[in-house]
Design a protein that fits this description.
Helix content: 40-55%
Distance between the termini: 44 Å
Strand content: under 5%
Radius of gyration: 25 Å
Number of helices: 5
Structural class: mainly alpha
Strand order of the largest sheet: 1-2
Number of domains: 1
Number of strands: 2
Order of helices and strands: HHEEHHH
Shape: elongated
Largest sheet: 2 strands, antiparallel
Length: 199
């Protein structure tokens, strides 16, 4: 399939979307640059922040709050130092999140290392999705050339992956049989057949 909303064979990271970041000023970003909550707000007409800017703002707010608590405690445990398990640097408690200090103990990582790890995970996830999309495009080309059975499903997978990369929303299976009489075998009470053909 040559065109499914975006031109085929382009670098997916270069696709344009319809979202602007109010903090860094970047324009026409794809939805993958924003959290699901932010994309919902953007669709409602609100100004939103990309994931990078939102994470930086939350980190600044957390550090400010930690600094205020440290000043108020005047040398209590919040001003002690800890060694980051990732970078090995000795840093004040304010450089760590409360969850890391409370739950990880000696394995606690500083907020900067946690943020870097999350950014790397997000990059790997994006690259993985782009790779699967390229594989789906190849499969679609083969299916179209050979007129293979089930090619509609192959095309649908390619379209779903393109939509996921642009919108950030994973495809969901709709319908099908389930428990409790759902799906096939359960008539629609609002249809003529479900009412026994009576008008």
């Amino acid at each position: 399939m040559s065109d499914l909303g975006v031109r085929a064979n382009m670098d997916p990271t270069q696709w344009h979307g319809a979202y602007d970041c109010k903090d860094c000023g970047r324009k026409r970003l794809p939805a993958v640059e924003f959290s699901n909550k932010m994309t919902q707000r953007a669709r409602a007409g609100e100004k939103v922040s990309c994931k990078k800017c939102a994470a930086e703002r939350l980190e600044r707010e957390r550090l400010d709050a930690e600094a205020k608590r440290s000043d108020a405690s005047e040398g209590t445990s919040s001003s002690t130092t800890h060694v980051c398990a990732a970078c090995g640097a000795t840093k004040p408690a304010s450089a760590f999140s409360r969850a890391q200090l409370n739950n990880k103990g000696a394995d606690a990582r500083c907020s900067a290392c946690v943020r870097d790890a999350e950014a790397l995970d997000a990059k790997d996830a994006k690259e993985s999705l782009a790779k699967r999309l390229n594989e789906a495009r190849t499969a679609s080309a083969v299916a179209e050339a050979t007129n293979a059975m089930g090619k509609l499903g192959v095309f649908a997978r390619e379209a779903a992956l393109e939509a996921e990369l642009v919108t950030g929303l994973k495809p969901q299976r709709v319908g099908g049989r389930g428990r409790g009489g759902r799906g096939r075998g359960r008539s629609n009470p609002n249809s003529m057949l479900g009412r026994g053909g009576k008008k």
